[in-house]
DNA sequence: CAAGTATATAATCATTTTGTTATATAATCA
DNA sequence: TGATTATATAACAAAATGATTATATACTTG
């Protein structure tokens, strides 16, 4: 019995199958973010966030680029299942409020880059 | 930082994140199937299939009912994220051929119930 | 240059997961 | 009734996972 290869699909869902990673992707759907922002948003330790991001990056779901002293992570538009991923993320409650909130409140203690600026940078 | 609860979503994707389970759901999207059919289709052992189905059932994604000597498993239309699940399954290559094939070929050695009959039973 | 910030990674550990083997149960059949 | 079929489940082992602790690197700043 021959099966079509669904491994890349399975991998995508496996990544979505962890609540922290699901939140991470939901946040990155709103804006590119640095590791320290995600620490705050996810309420996780720096190594936990960093390794979680590495795993997502290895699957091709996200990418990163350096902006000043920060490594900015974003969804990867070149990802094989990007459209499907976005469709899934769109059906979750939006993370916009939370993402904006860390700028508004004093929580963004370390990384000072503005969310709006990050949103701008991504498009260029 | 308050987060919406995405645990039920995460659980769904975790289930989809295993290739055997992903195939299982793809098969059940085509027809209700008994355990022995799934053994053939998935090329897995009986206990492996049975435990995999139990896990899917515990999440609410599938249900089962007895038909003659067989336990017929189907997607659960009452599942909280049923529409989303179907949307995801629709984007995968169809399993129709494979599901029909086990009836056509002599592979369906044990369970003799016809796929078409199962499809019919589900609707009633 | 010393200190601090941002991030990555390695080692380790606890937990979870998945499959196998073995066994139980219920129904059917010869 | 004894054998077979269909399925479930428990016990166990192997593998994968996710987090923490500790450390490394690169950059910036006083």
UniProtKB/TrEMBL annotation, chains A, B:
Q: Report if keyword Disulfide bond is assigned.
A: no
Q: What are the record keywords, sorted?
A: DNA-binding, Transcription, Transcription regulation
Q: Name one Pfam family in it.
A: HTH_5
Q: Which residues form the HTH arsR-type domain?
A: 1-97
Gene3D superfamilies in the record, alphabetically? Winged helix-like DNA-binding domain superfamily/Winged helix DNA-binding domain
Q: Does the keyword Transcription apply?
A: yes
Which CDD domains does UniProt cross-reference here? Answer: HTH_ARSR
Q: What NCBIfam families would the database entry show?
A: HTH_metalloreg (NF033788)
Q: What is this protein called?
A: ArsR family transcriptional regulator
- This protein's species is Alkalicoccus sp
Organism taxonomic ancestry = Bacteria, Bacillati, Bacillota, Bacilli, Bacillales
């Amino acid at each position: 019995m021959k099966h079509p290869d669904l491994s890349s699909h399975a991998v995508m869902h496996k990544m979505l199958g962890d609540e922290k990673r699901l939140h991470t992707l939901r946040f990155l759907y709103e804006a590119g973010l640095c590791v320290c922002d995600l620490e705050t948003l996810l309420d996780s330790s720096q190594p936990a966030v960093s390794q979680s991001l590495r795993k997502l990056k290895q699957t091709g779901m996200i990418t990163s680029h350096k902006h000043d002293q920060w490594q900015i992570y974003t969804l990867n538009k070149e990802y094989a299942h990007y459209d499907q991923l976005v469709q899934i993320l769109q059906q979750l409650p939006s993370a916009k409020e939370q993402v904006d909130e860390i700028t508004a409140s004093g929580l963004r203690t370390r990384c000072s880059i503005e969310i709006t600026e990050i949103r701008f940078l991504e498009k260029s």
